[in-house]
Design brief:
The chain has 5 helices and 9 strands. By secondary structure, the protein is α+β, with helices and mostly antiparallel strands. The chain has a single domain, classed as Glutaredoxin (3-Layer(aba) Sandwich), CATH 3.40.30. Strands 2-1-5-4-3-8-9 form a 7-stranded mixed beta sheet. It has a two-stranded antiparallel ribbon with strand order 6-7. Helix 2 packs across helix 5. It is globular, with a radius of gyration of 16 Å.
């Protein structure tokens, strides 16, 4: 199932910092997601916001809403995370069968401790995930996520941003890719798509 309504991409606005070049462009990733040209998703080994090691197997038996972003994101990430939280609220008791995950693309700043302060603002069931730069890159590549650290302005050398694609991935109870919600998708629309899937069982 592919969600083809409008989409938003963070496109590269400044030079990528050395050593952090992404493997694929946003256009290539959009093509893969829209037309199912390659598998999306896969195993990961990360650390949650309580410091506990987490793998994909921890979430088997539940639908997953997977979002890649970073806590210093000024608008897109908090807006989408808020929509995820509203979706869970609208699902009510059915939300117990849905696990939302926020995977940082900025592990340098988004430590487990920092995520522990951030994710509860959006929903008590939202799990924040971080890890080494290598582990984050592997997870992002599996989900076909573009992200790249961007050089800060010369007059503000202590602060950088991260350009990234902004999709909410919907995965089934076995961890298989069902499709994506574009950034800006409303909670009502997500509920409309998710609710029929809740009657399906894991294989």
């Amino acid at each position: 199932m592919i969600f083809r309504a409008g989409f938003i991409l963070w496109l590269m606005l400044a030079p990528v910092m050395a050593g952090d070049a992404p493997t694929r462009s946003p256009a290539e990733i959009m093509d893969i997601l829209m037309w199912n040209r390659e598998p999306v998703g896969g195993p990961f080994e990360l650390i949650d916001h309580t410091g506990k090691p987490r793998t994909t197997s921890d979430f088997r038996g539940k639908l997953m809403l997977v979002y890649f972003g970073f806590t210093f994101c000024p608008d897109i990430c908090p807006t989408d995370l808020q929509a995820i939280g509203q979706t869970l609220d609208k699902l009510g008791a059915e939300a117990d069968s849905v696990q939302p995950l926020f995977i940082t693309v900025d592990p340098e700043r988004d430590t487990a401790q920092h995520l522990a302060e951030y994710v509860p603002m959006f929903h008590p069931r939202l799990i924040g995930l971080t890890g080494s730069a290598e582990a984050i890159r592997r997870a992002a590549d599996a989900y076909k996520v573009y992200y790249a650290k961007v050089d800060p302005p010369k007059e503000d050398s202590g602060h950088y941003t991260v350009d990234h694609t902004a999709f909410i991935y919907l995965m089934d109870r076995d961890g298989n890719y069902l499709g994506f919600f574009p950034s800006g998708t409303t909670a009502d629309r997500m509920v409309e798509i998710i609710r029929p899937r809740l009657t399906e069982t894991a294989r």
